[in-house]
TrEMBL record:
The keyword Kinase applies. Keywords: ATP-binding, Cell membrane, Glycoprotein, Kinase, Membrane, Neurogenesis, Nucleotide-binding, Phosphoprotein, Receptor, Signal, Transferase, Transmembrane, Transmembrane helix, Tyrosine-protein kinase. The gene is epha5. It catalyses: L-tyrosyl-[protein] + ATP = O-phospho-L-tyrosyl-[protein] + ADP + H(+). This is receptor protein-tyrosine kinase. Residues 33-200 form the Eph LBD domain. Residues 738-802 form the SAM domain. Residues 267-361 form the Fibronectin type-III domain. It is found in: Cell membrane. InterPro entries: Eph_TM, Ephrin_rcpt_lig-bd_dom, Ephrin_rcpt_TKs, FN3_dom, FN3_sf, Galactose-bd-like_sf, Ig-like_fold, Kinase-like_dom_sf. GO terms for cellular component: dendrite; plasma membrane. One of its GO terms (molecular function) is ATP binding. CDD domains: FN3, PTKc_EphR_A.
Length: 812
């Protein structure tokens, strides 16, 4: 009798809560979640099986729309040795390898039961079955209800979510086990997370099911939208197990003739109507209206025409205006005309065909034409006779080779080869500015607010409204009043450098204002400002993969500059800008210089301040900079990123920093920094610049980390991240081969542990076999970086010396 009373009590609770739930309306499911089972949405019977039959009990009701509401309850707390099971139907996984189970339930507080039932439980178990049942977890309530809650109709609903995986079959069963609790299972939802369809940077990424491991990222190559192509590399994103797209790499750009409008590439709309004006015997005057959607400033129009029925032979002429007289036509002939517009993005589509006919001619016209032709012929013959002698002299002076080579301000330009031109080679610096930067009318710019201060004046932001283009936010550098001509040249010099770069991780120059005051440099607006300040504001807010994604973007931009033979000299987190999508872009080219063709060449600075904490020792000592010195600076940027904007070398003086670096001391690993990233930092800080990795090698390595996040799980040794204490490079990179017992330990001791698997696969499983290795053997097993080869070979040589000395001691 008491057992039935408790059952009625829980039923009352369940019904009351279910009715209140029905009044809440439709449940909202996030876009990245796909339901495999939702007991709230099943219209018929659930058909779940209870064992024994007098255990779990289904309560069926309908809501105000007569949709069924399914709830299961059990409350046999007065009886001992309870073992009540509830089994679901077969749940298909739809290809998902990891699923989530969301339970909503109420549970009675055992202490609130009259008389205190000793066998009462406040938990229940959940299990799953692919081939056999496996316990998932024991489920407990955060809140349990009491007798007072029943009287006040207070519903204490619990929600618990568990994840399940990796799954290996097409489906599974769920089961719930009661061992003597008073439970109402209100709803069960089984779902998986996916990364939903996304269009980003003109690339489409399909619905993607994540991998099975919690830390695994699935790399997805995007498809460029119609009328666009990849820029430098195919666009990629990475799908996390939480159904989030992370670490965007690469982008697409519109093809010539198309312009980006709202995430798609659109051509200028066709000219709709071509009208005929005055018609002559050999000419027709045409006019037309500007396209309805020009998608930019129309630079010119192209008119294509041909004689009717002879479209295989056509003529194309150009016009800056919306009218033109087409001449040289045959009298009494029908011609087909088509017109299309060209913007900075390229040509649009041709208009439909328009047919017009020239006027007929008469006898008098023939005579007039004949006389005219005769006069023209006589003039041509006379001109030829008079100029004959001079032609020979002119030809004699011309070098035919000059027609084959094009010189551009002292630089030979070859078709299809991107050439950086140093603005310092221009006799007139203004010429360089106007060649590489677009002049913008000041009326198109509105300064709304000041966002900072630069060396030459204030930095502001505001909208740029170019005719025919959508409004965009830009950053505006201004030159302060009272400047000298040299200051003006220095200010615009940076623009003449930026204008030559085109890469998604290099700040984009929009144009300059030089024909009015103040003189301005207009660049794209980066919402999150400088990287160092942004990281300090968001300390600890990003995942390791997000930070690696930022580092990858910086390395990609530097690879582009390095490939152009260009050295930055001032690479630091303060000179990296971050946009709203966490894309990092290299900026501030005020200290930059270009490299010569010789890969070992470097520019010597003409004085000025050097950022000591970010600069390679050879650049400090000899004031010579190479791409290898930029790699050293990149290692410092890595340290800044992983420490969330901490100042390198803290409060040490510049002289102390120089001395410490010369004595082989390096920055310690930041807190919670993956060991693999710290190893890369140490590689960037090699004393010998030839041992440092190249930027393309850095990009490849970071890509591997992104594809395999598990390689970033191991954190730096605590001894290498003691706050404010430098680490001796030898102690981190040092050789401990004399104490190592295994190949793995030896490689770890010299910070080359990443090659352990390659050594094992190559058959070098003991120190004795390793001691016999040569440089060729290292290349054969997959050690391709010259710096790493040198480090390993040096350690092997020391290992041989130690082994030989040990053998000699034994023999004695």
């Amino acid at each position: 009798m008491q057992s039935r009373w408790w059952s009625c009590g829980i039923r009352l609770v369940t019904w009351t809560w279910v009715w209140s739930l029905a009044l809440l309306g439709v449940w909202c499911i996030p876009a990245n979640e796909v339901n495999l089972l939702d007991s709230r949405s099943v219209m018929g019977d659930l058909g779940w099986v209870a064992y024994p039959k007098n255990g779990w009990e289904e309560i069926g009701e309908v809501d105000e729309n007569y949709a069924p509401i399914h709830t299961y309850q059990v409350c046999r707390v007065m009886e001992q040795n309870q073992n009540n099971w509830l089994h679901t139907n077969w749940i298909l996984t739809e290809g998902a390898q990891r699923v989530f189970i969301e339970l909503k339930f109420t549970l009675r507080d055992c202490n609130s039961l009259p008389g205190g039932v000793g066998t009462c439980k406040e938990t229940f178990n959940m299990a799953m079955k692919e081939s056999r049942y496996i316990k998932i977890d024991t489920i407990a309530a955060d809140e349990s209800f009491t007798e007072l809650d029943l009287g006040d109709r207070v519903m204490k609903l619990n929600t618990e979510v568990r994840d399940l995986g990796p799954l290996t079959r097409k489906g599974f069963y769920l089961a719930f086990q009661d061992l003597g609790a008073c439970i109402a299972l209100v709803s069960v939802r089984v779902f998986y997370k996916r990364c939903p369809f996304l269009v980003k940077s003109l690339a489409e990424f399909p619905d993607t099911i994540p991998g099975s491991e919690a830390s695994q990222l699935v790399e997805v190559v995007g498809r460029c939208v119609n009328n666009s192509l990849p820029l430098y590399e195919p666009p990629r994103m990475h799908c996390s197990t939480e159904g989030e797209w992370l670490v965007p790499i690469g982008k697409c750009v519109c093809q010539p003739g198309f312009e980006e409008i709202n995430g798609s590439c659109q051509a200028p709309s066709p000219v709709s109507v071509v009208r005929k004006g005055h018609t002559g015997k050999s000419s027709i005057a045409l006019s037309w209206a500007e396209p309805d959607r020009p998608n930019g400033i129309i630079l010119e129009y192209e008119i294509k025409y041909f004689e009717k029925e002879q479209d295989s032979s056509y003529t194309i002429i150009k016009s800056k205006d919306t009218e033109m007289v087409v001449e040289g036509l045959k009298p009494s002939s029908a011609y087909i005309f088509q017109v299309r517009a060209r913007t900075s993005a390229g040509y649009g589509a041709f208009s439909r065909r328009f047919e017009f006919q020239t006027s007929p001619y008469c006898e008098s016209s023939i005579v007039a034409v004949a006389i005219t032709l005769a006069l023209v012929l006589l003039a041509v013959v006379a001109g030829f006779l008079l100029s004959g002698r001079r032609c020979g002299y002119s030809k004699a002076k011309q070098d035919p080779e000059e027609e084959k080579m094009h010189f551009h301000n002292g630089h030979i330009k070859f078709p299809g080869v991107r050439t950086y031109i140093d603005p310092l080679t221009y006799e007139d610096p203004n010429q360089a500015v106007h060649e590489f930067a677009q002049e913008i009318d000041v009326s198109y710019i509105s300064i709304e607010r000041i966002i900072g201060a630069g060396e030459f004046g204030e930095v502001c932001s505001g909208p740029l409204r170019l005719p025919g283009k959508r409004e965009i936010q830009v950053a505006i550098k201004t030159l302060k009043a009272g400047y000298t001509e040299q200051q003006r040249r220095d200010f615009l010099w940076e623009a003449s450098i930026m204008g030559q770069f085109n890469h998604p991780n290099i700040i984009r120059l929009e144009g300059v204002v030089t024909k009015s005051k103040p003189v301005m440099i207009i660049t794209e607006y980066m919402e999150n400002g400088s990287l160092d300040t942004f990281l300090k504001k968001n300390d600890g807010q990003f995942t390791v993969i997000q930070l690696v994604g930022m580092l990858r973007g910086i390395a990609s931009g530097m690879r582009y500059l390095s490939d152009m033979g260009y050295v930055h000299r001032d690479l630091a987190a303060r000179n990296i800008l971050v946009n709203s999508n966490l894309v990092c872009k290299v900026s501030d080219f005020g200290l930059s210089r270009v490299l010569e063709d010789d890969p070992e060449a470097a520019y010597t600075t003409r004085g000025g301040k050097i950022p000591i904490r970010w600069t390679a020792p050879e650049a400090i000592a000899y004031r010579k900079f190479t791409s290898a010195s930029d790699v050293w600076s990149y290692g410092i940027v890595m340290w800044e990123v992983m420490s969330y904007g901490e100042r390198p070398y803290w409060e040490m003086s510049n002289q102390d920093v120089i001395k410490a670096v010369e004595e082989s001391y390096r920055l310690p690993g930041p807190m919670d920094c993956p060991e693999a990233l710290y190893h890369l930092m140490m590689d960037c800080w090699q004393r010998e610049r030839s041992n440092r990795p190249k930027f393309d090698e850095i990009v490849c390595l970071l890509d591997k980390f992104i594809r395999n996040p598990s390689s970033l799980k191991k954190l730096v040794n605590s001894s290498h991240r003691v706050s404010n204490l430098l680490v001796e490079h030898a102690s981190v990179e040092g050789n401990c081969s004399t104490r190592s017992q295994t190949v793995g330990e030896w490689l770890d001791s010299i910070k080359m542990g990443r090659y352990t698997e390659l050594f094992m696969e190559g058959g070098y499983s003991s120190l004795e076999t390793v001691a016999q290795m040569t440089s060729e053997d290292l290349r054969r097993v997959g050690v391709n970086l010259a710096g790493h080869q040198k480090k390993i070979i040096t350690s092997i040589q020391e290992m041989r010396v130690h082994m030989n000395s040990t053998n000699s001691t034994v023999n004695i």
